[in-house]
Amino acid sequence: MISSIFGKTKPINYILLIGFLFGFYWFVHLIMFQRTYNLEQLAGQSVILGCILFSLFLVNFIANKNKITGSNSMGMLFYTLLIVFFPSVLLDVNAIFCSFFILLAVRRILSLRSYRNVKHKIFDASMWILIASLFYDWALLYLILVFVAINLYHSKNIRNWLIPFVAIIAMLLIGMAVLVVLGNPDYLLDHYKFQVSFNASYFGDYETVAFFLLYVLVILLSGFMGYMRLGKVGLGWLMRMRLVLYIFLVGLLITFFKSSSDNYPIIITFFPAVIFMTTYVETIKKERIRELVLITTIILPFIVLLARIF
Predict the structure, then answer these.
(1) Angle in degrees, CA 307, 98, 282, rounded to 5
(2) CB 24 within 8 A of CB 84
(3) CB contact set of 24 (below 8 Å; sequence gap of 6+)
(4) Residue pLDDT, tens place only, 251-272
(5) How many angstroms separate the CA atoms of 138 and 143, rounded?
(6) What is the DSSP string of 60-115?
(7) pTM for the whole thing?
């Protein structure tokens, strides 16, 4: 039943997930963490919520457009469930906006498999990553993926390798001009510190470590199972999945660097996680087993949520 509902792209799927995520966002803020907001702050929170909802559609669009997964709503479902599993991500404004701009960059990176507008795509991807780094400095690591994609698809043209550096220069010039106008020319020097400090107090919490390890284990296992079952579908799909794996690993590295009691950057790993989970579910041929996996996937985040509340 669940696979029949979310196994297709129907308007009702979007309405269900958007409605749930809308209510869950305010539940986390107002009830679970007991935040209070005035009218001006509520307007700001509405913008953040809009960014999350748009990210939901963006995840689905990237997966379907680049033919990484089948044409279904599974990606949107899993993205929503991951937010339920890690509700604290809804409190981190920087992580939400960083994740949004990384998704825009990933959209351009994966589209490099096409030979149309290659230079524009490389420039756009680099710019989106640079904008994302304004929220988390370590997001600059995603620039490595731009070069990886160039190496995979368009390595013969030397000018393609220079475009990310052009984007960096353009971003510096625009950023410095804006900061001078705003009267804060030292912002970039203060922001890009790239501190590598293992937060022992955060990762010293056994509950946090357990949930984090469970998440990583399930995602990597899903990706591995999907790869084993679909490894012969074609080189193009395997190259895209390799990029998705790199996106996940870079996201984990940034999560390791930046996680604390106030920062929850793990949301930047949700897109590749969704791809791996969707790919695995799609490979399950027996309907009963697929339904059982989906039911377990849906129930588990809510069990974890209730455990955290009580």
Answers:
(1) 60
(2) yes
(3) 83, 84, 87
(4) 999 988 877 767 788 999 999 9
(5) 10
(6) HHHHHHTTSS-SSSHHHHHHHHHHHHSGGGGG-HHHHHHHHHHHHHHHHHHGGGS-
(7) 0.93
